[in-house]
Amino acid sequence: MQTVPMLNPVSPPLDARSRALRKLCVEAIDGAGRGHLPSALSLIEVLRVLYDDVMRYRAAEPMWLERDRCILSKGHGCLGLYAILADKGYFSRDLLRTYCSDDTILGGHPERGKVPGAEASTGALGHGLAIGIGMAIAARIQKRDSRTFVITGDGEINEGSIWEGAMAASKHRLDNLTVIVDRNKLQSYGRTVDVQDLEPLTDKWRAFGFAVADVDGHDVEALRGALKQPLQAGKPTCVIAHTIKGKGIPHIENNAEWHHRSKVTADDLSKLYAALNPATEAA
Amino acid sequence: MRKSALDAVYDLAKKDPRVVFIGSDLGAGAMDKFRKEMPDRFFMEGVAEQNIIGMAAGLAMDGFIPYVNTIATFLTRRCYEQIAVDLCMHNLPVRLIATGGGMVYAPLGPTHIAIEDMAILRALPNMTVTAPTDAPEATRLVNATLDVPGPVYVRLAKGGDPVVSRESDGFAIGKSILLRKPQDVLFIANGVMVNRCLTASDTLQGRGVGAGVLNVHTLKPLDEEGILAAARGARLVVTVEEHTLMGGLGSAVSELFMRRLGRIAPQLVTLGIPDVFTEKYGSQDYLLEQYGLQPAQIANTAAAAIGQLAA
Questions:
Q1: 8 Å CB contact between A152 and A179
Q2: Which of A160, A232, B79, B176 is the most buried (most CB within 10 A)?
């Protein structure tokens, strides 16, 4: 078996759209004073490509039967999901500032039925793949060509339920199912390589029966290429998106102190906004 | 009872294209007719209960009604978080058909003995928790699950249990059935304890003590009005369950009496399994005897309690 070397993303610079979506995440943090920001920032290009270029959906009719489904299994990355859903008009952008407040619909983990466009209530890790498998099988029985995308964290795939799901997806030859691993190489305690080493990860997914692509998870063109179609007929797809936790805001990139921040100060916020300012980027 | 319940699932599936069946690693040939006739709605998914529950949730989100069947302990303990998050939080119409509820698997020891299943599921919002008393009631119960909007747990017994339910009583989830009218004593039971209470009632009758029997096949939602009505006039109420005393039928009735009746509640005795893992093997009947749950023991306990009240 050939081991594919881990990609170290050398991404193109973030364009205006990628920065704008990150600003929406920071606006939510601004309102709440807390949140899992870096886990959302690593996901922005994945979500952007799915919702801009790949998925079929109707924002005004979130439960449209023929839609493609995107389950954010790593529910703590919900700021990214909220940002793209607000951007697409599932709900008002103004709601982002209510994130985690008393009566908001936008909690610290997404809930189906509360957040228009959230396909599953997640937050406990390792649940999204099995739900996605159920949806993919449902599409097959109902003869719909809907695709199902499941976004997991890399720490999340420590869970055994993910590998139960990997076996099942492959057994059922679910080529309408794509798993995207947000491979940012950090989990709560520290580096994944130290906490629970996942390598050789590409080989693992391949051995479980997936067609696998390793891509730079911040390279929009590369993501489009990997996600536009299933990689191989008769097999589920796994896209390992090599990302940087906190991507786009240099001082929180790969910074474990920011995994979950609960007391975000005014000074923190001005630094976050400044980092997303194009002038700063150019400098 | 398992055969009746699974036959009922087959019949539902023949009539309703939303019904799918998911097993884990059941015995060879299980549900063969279903598999042959409705292969696109039949799934045998291996020893992977977490994935099975999540998959059932995904199917239910897109319009299906999955019936999941495996051994009770594995269907409740192993995948409890999936039941809580995937099924109950989303309030999805998934049915959990639990084989070998209670101490059916006595020879196999505590890993296979399901005596806290109803308590842990009762604690989850949106979950319906049931234990039919015999095979015909299991059929009626499975038929009644089809249109329940949320998840339902069905605890099945060993099979070949005495038939004590009557079709003429009808069946509705959440509605208890009075099998024998209470006099001094009322037994409140579920599952196979119902037939043991009827035998205990016969024994007590021979001793001049009248004892009624209420079949509370649905632990949640609890038929509060039905229980209170049946208990009215009884001096002694005895709950009998093949389940730990922590959080099951006895707990539910105690809570109900305290909340609704307070000081005017009848004397209550709760029979069940104490806070232990079983230590012996043998048979279900042998284990029931260890915990005072056979008819003669139930009758003696009730007679002693009513005797104390008279004194």
A1: yes
A2: B79
Residue A185 lies in a domain: yes
Q: Show the beta-strand stretches assigned E in B170-299.
A: 177-180, 185-189, 211-215, 218-220, 236-244, 267-273
A177 touches chain B (CB under 8 A): no
Q: Does A167 touch chain B (CB under 8 A)?
A: yes
Judgement on whether residues B188 and B63 belong to the same structural domain of the protein: no
- Across the interface, whether the CB atoms of B51 and A130 are under 8 A apart is answered yes
Tens digits of pLDDT across chain A (283 residues): 444 445 666 778 999 999 999 999 999 999 899 889 999 999 999 999 999 999 999 999 999 999 999 999 999 999 999 999 999 999 999 999 999 999 999 999 999 999 999 999 999 999 999 999 999 999 999 999 999 999 999 999 999 999 999 999 999 999 999 999 999 999 988 999 999 999 999 999 999 999 999 999 999 999 999 999 999 999 999 999 999 999 999 999 998 888 888 889 999 999 999 999 876 544 4
3-state DSSP call for residue B1?
Answer: coil
**Residue whose C-alpha is closest to residue B237's, from B246, B247, B249:** B249
Cα(A264)–Cα(A271) distance, integer angstroms: 11
Q: How far is B80 from chain A (nearest CA, A)?
A: 12
Q: Report yes or no for ipTM above 0.90.
A: yes
CATH of the domain at B178: 3.40.50.920
Give the gap in angstroms from C-alpha A226 to the nearest C-alpha of chain B.
Answer: 25
A224 lies in which domain range? Answer: 16-282
Best interface-test mutation with A: which of B55, B64, B82 has the largest number of A CBs within 10 A? B55
Q: Which domain holds residue B189?
A: 174-310
CA distance from start to end of chain B: 43
Q: Do residues B211 and B157 lie in contact, with contact meaning Cβ atoms separated by under 8 Å?
A: no
| B39: nearest CA partner in chain A | A141
Q: First and final CA of chain A: distance in angstroms? A: 44
Domains identified in chain A, total number: 1
A88 Cβ under 8 Å from any chain B Cβ: no
User: B84 and B208: one domain?
Assistant: no
